[in-house]
TrEMBL record:
Domain Thioredoxin stretches: 233-371
Cellular localisation: Cell envelope
PROSITE patterns associated with the record: PROKAR_LIPOPROTEIN, THIOREDOXIN_1, THIOREDOXIN_2
The protein, known as: Thiol-disulfide isomerase or thioredoxin
Lineage: superkingdom: Bacteria
GO cellular component, one term: cell envelope
Gene3D superfamilies per record: Glutaredoxin (3.40.30.10)
Length: 371
């Protein structure tokens, strides 16, 4: 073979290799992510498989037919889906649409489902599994501590606190590791959502340091917004107005309950909240002895459903203003973290007291209305 032919063949081979390499690097990954299921347990035949995107709130469904289903969505590694089947009592399954085909399978013990396939979904499943293992070990060790009759009450409390602190640290290290390795996808988003912080200030600092992807996590962004809202509506500030969508389909304003020269006491509650309902008899007695021309009462139902809420109102015979805030707008705006929660507003529109204990609010009412 002469030098010219050798050179020509080498040039052609180099061009072919370059084309292959460019092709490989130029090709994008799968545009869609498909979740398939086969041979599902017979009790799920004809049931709806529910897909909920936690970041957008969008919900879609497909039916199980012949023990199978197939569902395809665009690739999106920055969103987390919760998947459930009607009639399933084992909880949802988390899913990341990372591209390619994934299998939705029943667990060997028929207790729930899991996702098979995909690097990110495997990482997510492993993280959750490791967390569950830690919870199981902690539970076993906690029982051993409680069963140790040689420990005094103080020693028992000390041992329990030490164990809790040790496992909290292990969980923190576990989720921090996954967050560090996945700062730009839904694995990191879920890892951050599972991290615990000792104070709101620590959480705010950590949240603001995260990537925009991680910040979109459903639970973290809700906590972040609630903390900021609580700060904006703390004692000494001016009350914030908002619209309430009622069960009757009407829209009313919170400010509609502000009356000239009268204080407004707001009680955020729910029909399912035992402490909320237990305190109502005491509140009725409190209101009876306070001057009606100086105080307006308002109970706002939140995180509740119309039927149980209305039933509770009738059973408790609430004598003052009450409304179910269908979207819980007020509770979110005022950063309510637990219920019952009371907010006392002056006639001038200033928030003068916030508390979860009615006795703390009553003390202020006595001072303002009876003196």
């Amino acid at each position: 073979m002469n030098k010219i032919n050798c050179h020509f063949r080498g040039t052609v081979l180099l061009s072919l290799l370059s084309g292959i390499i460019l092709g490989l690097y130029g090709c994008s990954g799968p545009a869609n992510s498909t979740l398939q299921a086969k041979d599902l347990p017979s009790q799920y035949e004809g049931q709806a498989v529910i897909f909920k995107n936690l970041q957008t709130g969008d919900v879609d469904t497909v039916k199980v037919e012949g023990g199978a289903f197939s569902y395809t969505i665009p690739v999106d590694t920055t969103s987390l889906y919760y998947i459930d089947i009607e009639g399933n009592n084992s909880g949802y399954v988390s899913f990341i649409a990372e591209g390619g085909v994934h299998q939705f399978k029943a667990k060997d013990n028929a207790d729930g489902f899991h996702i098979v396939g995909g690097y990110l979904n495997t990482e997510l499943k492993n993280m959750i599994s490791k967390s569950s293992e830690l919870e199981g070990k902690q539970s076993v060790e906690a029982m051993k501590i409680l069963d140790d009759t040689t420990l005094s009450d103080d020693e028992l409390r000390e041992a329990h606190n030490a164990q809790t602190e040790a496992y909290d640290k292990m969980r923190y290290e576990l989720f921090s590791d996954y967050l560090a390795r996945h700062p730009q996808n839904a694995v990191g988003m879920e890892a951050f959502a599972r991290l615990k912080y000792k104070s709101d200030e620590d959480f705010i600092e950590a949240y603001e340091a995260q990537s925009e992807v991680v910040k979109r996590g459903f639970a973290p962004i809700r906590r972040y917004e609630k903390i900021l809202n609580a700060q904006r509506t703390q004692e000494g500030g001016t009350y914030l107005d908002f619209e309430i969508n009622t069960i009757e389909g009407k829209t009313i304003k919170f400010s509609d309950f502000m009356e000239d020269g009268k204080y407004l006491l707001v009680d955020f509650w729910a029909s399912w909240c035992v402490p909320c309902r237990k305190i109502l008899p005491y509140m009725k007695k409190m209101v009876e002895r306070l001057p009606a021309d100086k105080l307006t009462m308002l109970s706002i139902g939140c995180y509740d459903k119309p039927e149980p809420y209305q039933k509770a109102v009738e059973e408790e015979e609430i004598p003052w203003n009450q409304v179910l805030d269908v979207n819980s707008t007020g509770a979110e705006l005022y950063g309510v973290k637990s219920i019952p929660h009371f907010v006392l507003i002056s006639p001038e529109g200033k928030i003068i007291k916030r508390a979860s204990n009615i006795l703390h609010v009553e003390a202020v009412l006595n001072e303002k209305l009876l003196n």
